[in-house]
Write a structure and sequence with these properties.
This protein is α+β, with helices and mostly antiparallel strands. It has 12 helices and 27 strands. Strand 1, helix 1 and strand 2 form a beta-alpha-beta unit. The structure holds flavin-adenine dinucleotide. Belongs to the PheA/TfdB FAD monooxygenase family.
Length: 503
């Protein structure tokens, strides 16, 4: 049976949009549907981490995101109702090998708008108001049932990816378990709203306390703030301005904080769950459909974007019939441990913020500065690594980076004298290999020619230093910018590598 599309992406949140952009730029025919009538309005995830910015660089939207976002942090922390810390930190400066050294802050609705605009430039758009209601699959493809305005249609795709959020229909239709826990007693009221009477206006205000927490985070370049305030166990709460005003007064001990009309109000419940499997036949799960946890640590959207970028190139090869057997299985092997790590880290972070250990409470005032520095350093070091994954070959010893790490950036000079950024090479849809020789030359191969390298100059040896490899070493970089292999150029590992991945 012929197919209507190569890939059907279900859900147009940040995960689905990233995947659709990546597939289309790799030349794959892709449809993307979302059941809501139009774009989601809520600010939700603010933290865009460095590795996500590197993905956005490959999609050509990193500059747009950075221009719209805020990179510094101005923070006021309260313990109970007392202010205990006010501090501002400047963003880390980019370096030659790390162009995106720190996280930036942008409401998720704006990040999604930038992704949608990029998708439109690439020639595709989201079909809003279309809900996946059924799916069947056989050896050749997936048949999806889609309801639009009460009318049902079927669509045949070679592959389907469920990026349809925590309540994923795709996951349920595939019968994939989502074990974990839901804590009905851990809830928060969320709002996007103008806040009056809270100074400094440009600061993030964070109230910590025993089993309670509240944050007011201003949007960059707008009068709106995101307000997140925990709800006491057992309390019945209807999302409304009146309730928001009461909760904020209780948390802050102040009655002079006032609100405009919210553009978004929602109640959030704590869920900590990980899908048993990320794949069933020709259908995959990515983003919140595969893992949900607390917003603490800003992992949700970032992990979804990384899922999408890990899967995109593998699906593109599979659609073209060029994926080696087993390549699609490496998606779950690499990304499920990353999902588990995000769950663990956000759960630890939430518990310590909501309930600072009793013995520590008197000294929280003194610990908060170092703690925030540690969190900022953690934010910089956000990338998951695939050191023990099925696609990593580390055959050279004592290298600065390892197979399974994201490849660093750097600048080389082409034979014509042009300067070229490694990130621009990684943006190409295939593998890149860099062979380092004794003469400070780097032989670069990119698709379609994997056999002959072109000599580029690395006059100061900065690229070699960034990788920390000896002369006579070759590094193969995967189409998602991760290092696949580090091996002696003349050894047996290099010729054996690509056949492991490509048919
Ligand atoms: C207060 C708050 C703060 C957060 N802060 C951060 C942060 O700082 N950093 C971070 O990384 N993450 C953060 N998160 C988490 C982040 O918002 C989510 O992880 C992210 O939205 C997941 O993206 P997604 O694309 O996987 O799913 P979603 O954004 O949930 O998108 C799923 C889409 O699928 C559609 N859909 C569902 N079912 C169907 C169907 N049957 N057919 C068609 N379409 C369907 C939905 O309409 C929706 O548009 C935060 C969340 C909250 C609530």
């Amino acid at each position: 049976m012929s197919t209507d599309t190569d890939v059907l992406v279900v859900g147009a949140g940040p995960t689905g949009l990233t995947l659709a952009c990546d597939l289309v730029r790799r030349g794959i025919i892709c449809r993307i549907i979302d059941r809501s009538p139009g774009p989601q309005e809520g600010s939700r995830g603010f933290g865009v981490k460095p590795r996500t910015l590197a993905v956005f660089d490959a999609l050509d939207i990193a500059d747009t995101v950075i221009q719209a976002a805020r990179a510094d942090t101005h923070l006021r922390v309260y313990l109970g109702t007392d202010p205990i810390y006010t501090g501002r930190s400047e963003p880390a400066a980019p370096t030659a090998d790390t162009p995106y050294p720190g996280p930036v802050s942008l409401p998720q609705s704006r990040t999604e708008a930038i992704l949608r605009a990029r998708l439109a430039e690439l020639g595709e758009s989201v079909r809003f108001g279309s809900c996946l209601t059924g799916l069947d699959q056989d050896a050749d493809g997936v048949t999806a049932t889609i309801a639009t305005d009460g009318e049902e249609e079927t669509l045949r795709a070679a592959y389907l990816v469920g990026c349809d959020g925590g309540g994923s229909t795709v996951r349920k239709l595939l019968g994939i378990g989502f074990p974990g826990r839901t804590e009905e007693d851990m809830r928060a009221l969320l709002a996007d709203v103008e806040v009056h009477g809270l100074e400094p206006r440009d600061a993030v205000h964070l109230w910590l306390g025993a089993r309670r927490m509240m944050a007011v985070r201003p949007w960059p370049g707008a009068a709106t703030s995101q307000v997140v305030t925990s709800i006491a166990p057992g309390r019945t709460v209807e999302p409304s301005v009146g309730e928001l005003t009461r909760l904020v007064a209780e948390h802050s001990g102040r009655d002079d904080i006032r609100f405009g009309t919210p553009t978004w109000l929602s109640v959030w419940r704590y869920n900590l769950r990980l899908a048993d499997r990320y794949r069933s036949g020709r259908a995959f799960l990515a983003g919140d459909a595969a893992h949900v946890h607390s917003p603490f640590g800003a992992y949700g959207m970032n992990t979804g974007v990384q899922d999408a970028y890990n899967l995109g190139w593998k699906l593109a090869l599979a659609v073209r019939g060029r994926a080696a057997p087993g390549l699609l299985d490496t998606y779950e092997a690499e990304r499920r441990p990353a999902g588990q790590a995000a769950l663990d880290a956000s759960d630890r972070g939430l518990s310590s913020a909501v309930t600072p250990p009793r013995v520590l409470r008197p000294v929280v005032r003194h610990l908060i500065g170092p703690l925030l520095s540690r969190m900022r350093a953690g934010g910089r070091d956000d990338h998951p690594t695939y050191h023990d994954g099925p696609l990593g070959v580390q055959a050279s010893r004592r290298t600065r980076v390892r197979a399974g790490d994201p490849a660093p950036d750097g600048v080389l000079t082409t034979p014509r004298g042009d300067r070229i950024h490694l990130y621009d090479l990684y943006r190409a849809p295939g593998f890149t290999s860099l062979s380092f020789d004794r003469e400070r030359q780097v032989y670069v191969t990119t698709p379609p020619d994997y056999t002959r390298g072109t000599g580029h100059d690395d006059p100061d040896g900065t690229v070699r230093d960034a990788f920390g490899v000896r002369p006579g070493t070759t590094v193969v970089i995967r189409p998602d910018g991760y290092i696949g292999l580090i091996a002696p150029t003349s050894g047996p590992e290099l010729p054996a590598y690509l056949p492991r991945v490509l048919r």
